[in-house]
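Journal club prep — side note

Before the paper discussion, L.F. wants everyone to see what a predicted structure for a comparable chain looks like in token form. Sequence:
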Amino acid sequence: MNAFRTRFAPSPTFFLHLGHAASAFHVWRAAEEAGGEVLLRIEDIDTTRCRPEYTQQIFADLEWLGLTWPEPVRVQSEHFSDYRACVADLNARGLAYRCFRTRTELTDLPDPMRPGRHSAEDEQRRLEANLPFAWRLSLNAARETLGPDWEALSFQEQTAEGLESQPANPDLHGDIIIARKDSPSAYHLAATHDDALQDMTHIIRGEDLIDAPHIHTLLQTLMGWPQPIYRHHPLVLDADGRKLSKREKSISLKQLRADGVTPEQVKQRLGFA
């Protein structure tokens, strides 16, 4: 295994913007400084929002920025069977449960983040009605399975001061969805599965995901997957101090190219020149 292997894993739900470019530069620079490599991964498990044209534009934009990666590129939608197998394994071990609840039903619960299992009768009734459901990871079952090891959960975070061991607190996330109603997987499961499969040693991403290692550590422990080192970089903000967002249709790299902006100007704007 490479001593330093990381990945850039965008979701093709819209075109990349300057925030993605900054994240990519952080990732490739870290790998270059460590003499390691970067894999490109397309995280397109969102079957309702991902589009092939966005995936193709990701390749074009990254090439325009002068970034390279080894082939083949892992495209998550081509490997749904892998994630189904993980969900089946967790379910067989009593660690996952079906959740049919709508958003309205969840808000009516005492703890929407930990809705818990349906009663056997309620679950059977909803199954017979062919209602859609998600799969959730049960933190109660995970805590019982791990016993004393639950309190020992921790991960390694690379900061400006050095490598720090931090206690993991999965309760921050509640009973996460591991398979969506409209997809055989959800982000946390697919990402940790692929990080293990692809032998990732370091995960470098924006500060908006700084809490993700808390639940990823639990998944890695339950599944017997290795734990990478995490590093989180600052986000690119707009004039109002908000992070750039595909949801807010922040100006895309594709548009910047059409406007005559050069890759060097992008690097200068982001402080990577």
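L.F.'s comment for the group: DSSP finds ten helices and ten strands in the chain. Keep this in mind when we get to the figures.
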